[in-house]
Specification:
This protein has about 250 residues and is of the alpha+beta class. The protein has a single domain, classed as Beta Polymerase, domain 2. Helix content is about 35%, strand content about 25%. The strands form four sheets. It has a five-stranded mixed sheet with strand order 3-4-2-1-12, with helices on both faces.
Length: about 250
Amino acid sequence: MNETIKRQKIINGLFDKFDKNIFEGILLVGSMSYGRNYSVTKNSDIDLIFIVKRENIDKLLSQNFFVAAEYFNIEKLGLLKRKTDGFWIDQHVDGVMINMGVYRSESFEKFCCFQKRKWKRSAEDGSGGWDKDKKYKGTNGKIYSGIINFRKNKKLYIKSYNIYAEGAFISNVFASNLLTSIVLYDKNGSVAKNINKFKFMTIKKYGAESILNILEYVFKKISENKKKEIIKNIFPTNMRKLASKLSCV
């Protein structure tokens, strides 16, 4: 619990390091969201997602907290406007690594309504890193490989994830992050609304039980009892009832 408290204090202090009004919303994801009471260790990172509108992307250049981060490249901002849905950068605060995903709000909204076929983000090279040959499970329970593709764009590469295979929704880190996220900041309420919409639509389209398959990324290190607890938190009873009534416009 001490490691959780340490990271929570860091999170509480982050909002003094940048102008949050640039963003539509900020999400806490990873172990600090789904496992803060049982899976946070001294080696755990803090994982955050920043949702930003296209017209506000350039404002990141005025925020030293982001510009000084590892793997920041000004070309990423250009890619984010035209060719990618987001990018990742890292920053150390008080000895703890903070992984930060910056995503276009337009892409985020489409993803939450199942209106995207691929999810694209910038990459430093085309080697694929840890997930090049990774296998992913679909909502149908089948295992898929080769769903990630790379193409070069000047100094950077674009990593593209296929979201569907054989009609099934394929697990990926972004989907798992949204399903287990905690909203830290929501400028006008739209971010939480879209996340709930994603949960509703996921149940409506695939059924609550199939979601266990796409949360494999989250579940790989926790017990069966904790899995049930997480599912209950993600999909409370009232959400299951509302799922049949919600639709995307």
